[in-house]
């Protein structure tokens, strides 16, 4: 045998090779790999596996050594109103209807695009800092939030909100249709931003307009989302107006399908849960907001057991005060146990699924929420040297029950690092702090407080 009989294998090219103590993949087998690595190219994961093996086979343009850290998929916020960071702590300790009608809506009516931009950038900074890489939004002048998200490097699905009654943004619900079409066209070529049709709720938009907006979503082939069954008070309003509970209003109009994402679903009964499951509609659980507004506790385990895809969201920063998905992930598990009287209900793996893969489906973006070959390289890292993450027996348990979100030391979207060891790479946080202070003065004036 001669030396010429041996052919050296050329190293494989990749843009980035990441090393970590552990990788929570969230793949179909829910593998957790130790002493692991992730190879990335063109914004996608090429391979996940043993770091020594990947290091021997790949020649990366860059390396990112996350020794002492664990990687997991970027969290996906299934329901928020990003610019409402402007109203964080503004009207606390109030029930839902009083909070909305007497405090939030009067100030919202006076917001302009400049203020909304400040709120959106604040929200993006908080999401990046706490390990969220994609979100489903609903608010006004959504192009502003889309521009902020795209500039910051986050993924977003934008929903221009509307009501049946005239608002400062639209004289009628139908007046929003053209805005929705324009919004979709505006971001058609942006790989990070998509759109959805977003009627506010079954108690603020009548059935015929809900149906018309759903037809618009079908014609554009985009998701349709709305608040639904958020509280017993909402149910009472719907019964008074239409003689039907919220889920039944949608069912009778043919508005339950896999295209649909329903936010909250606190006040739902066994028959309604079965109908949601049969339809393929998605539900987003918002435990912190539901608790703060005293709306109730959603029967999450019952929904999951019935086969409903249940994601996780923070809601807006004025009804949660945080956009921290780690807090809501922990709350989802804890509240789920109390709601069902069962310590095994909504376990750690279930809560992590809700915050990643399940929420990704709620966005209509099912390829998100996992670290797997061929999928987007959206990843975050937690610093395992934080005292509350030592020792490690179960990485998933730590992510759900022990982490606070402040252990996030790296946030990446499509292979681009947005945050690393305290440095925001796509945001001027100092300038944002000054803008936030100016916005706070405006809110005080606008509210008369």
TrEMBL record:
It is an enzyme of class 3 (hydrolase). GO terms for molecular function: 5'-methylthioadenosine deaminase activity; metal ion binding; S-adenosylhomocysteine deaminase activity. Its cofactor is Zn(2+). Substrate binds at residues 108, 200, 230, 315. Keywords: Hydrolase, Metal-binding, Zinc. Its EC number is 3.5.4.28, 3.5.4.31. InterPro entries: Amidohydro-rel (IPR006680), Deaminase_MtaD/DadD (IPR023512), Metal-dep_hydrolase_composite (IPR011059), Metal_Hydrolase (IPR032466), MTA/SAH_deaminase (IPR050287). Residues 70-417 form the Amidohydrolase-related domain. Binds 1 zinc ion per subunit. It catalyses: S-adenosyl-L-homocysteine + H2O + H(+) = S-inosyl-L-homocysteine + NH4(+); S-methyl-5'-thioadenosine + H2O + H(+) = S-methyl-5'-thioinosine + NH4(+). Belongs to the metallo-dependent hydrolases superfamily. MTA/SAH deaminase family. Catalyzes the deamination of 5-methylthioadenosine and S-adenosyl-L-homocysteine into 5-methylthioinosine and S-inosyl-L-homocysteine, respectively. Is also able to deaminate adenosine. HAMAP family: MTA_SAH_deamin. This is 5-methylthioadenosine/S-adenosylhomocysteine deaminase.
């Amino acid at each position: 045998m001669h030396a010429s009989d041996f052919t050296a294998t050329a190293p494989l090219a990749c843009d980035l090779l990441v090393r970590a103590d552990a990788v929570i993949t969230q793949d179909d087998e829910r593998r957790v790999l130790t002493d692991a690595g992730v190879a990335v190219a063109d914004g996608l994961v090429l391979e996940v596996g043993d770091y020594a093996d990947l290091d021997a086979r790949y020649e990366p343009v860059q390396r990112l050594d996350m020794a002492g850290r664990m990687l997991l998929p970027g969290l996906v916020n299934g329901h928020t109103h990003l610019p409402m960071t402007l109203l964080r702590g503004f009207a606390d300790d109030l029930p839902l209807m009083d909070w909305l009608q007497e405090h939030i809506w009067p100030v919202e009516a006076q917001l302009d695009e400049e203020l909304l931009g400040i709120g959106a950038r604040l929200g993006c900074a908080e999401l990046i800092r706490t390990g969220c890489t994609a979100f489903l939004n609903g608010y006004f002048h959504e192009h502003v939030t889309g521009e902020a998200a795209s500039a910051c490097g986050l993924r977003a699905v934008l929903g221009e909100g509307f009501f049946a009654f005239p608002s400062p943004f639209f004289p009628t619900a139908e007046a929003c249709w053209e805005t929705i079409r324009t919004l979709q066209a505006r971001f058609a070529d942006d790989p990070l931003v998509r759109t959805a049709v977003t009627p506010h709720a079954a108690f603020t938009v009548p059935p015929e307009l809900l149906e018309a907006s759903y037809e618009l979503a079908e014609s554009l082939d985009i998701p349709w989302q709305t608040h639904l069954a958020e509280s017993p008070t909402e149910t009472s309003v719907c019964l008074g107006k239409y003689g039907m509970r919220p889920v039944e209003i949608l069912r009778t109009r043919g508005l339950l399908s896999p295209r649909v994402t329903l936010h909250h679903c606190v006040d739902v009964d066994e028959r309604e849960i079965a109908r949601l499951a049969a339809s393929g509609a998605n539900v987003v659980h918002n435990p912190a907001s539901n608790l703060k507004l005293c709306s109730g506790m959603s029967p999450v385990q019952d929904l999951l057991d019935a086969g409903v895809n249940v994601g996780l969201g923070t809601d807006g920063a004025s009804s949660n005060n945080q956009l921290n998905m780690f807090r809501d992930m922990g709350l989802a598990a804890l509240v789920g146990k109390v709601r069902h009287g069962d310590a095994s209900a909504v376990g750690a793996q279930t809560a992590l699924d809700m915050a990643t893969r399940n929420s990704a489906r709620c966005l209509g973006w099912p390829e998100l929420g996992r670290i797997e070959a061929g999928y987007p390289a959206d990843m975050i890292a937690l610093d395992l040297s934080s005292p509350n993450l030592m020792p490690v027996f179960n990485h998933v348990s730590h992510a759900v029950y022990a982490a606070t979100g402040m252990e996030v030391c790296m946030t990446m979207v499509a292979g681009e690092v947005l945050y690393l060891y305290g440095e925001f790479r796509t945001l001027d946080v100092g300038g944002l702090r000054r803008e936030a202070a100016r916005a706070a003065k405006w809110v005080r004036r606008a509210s008369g407080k």
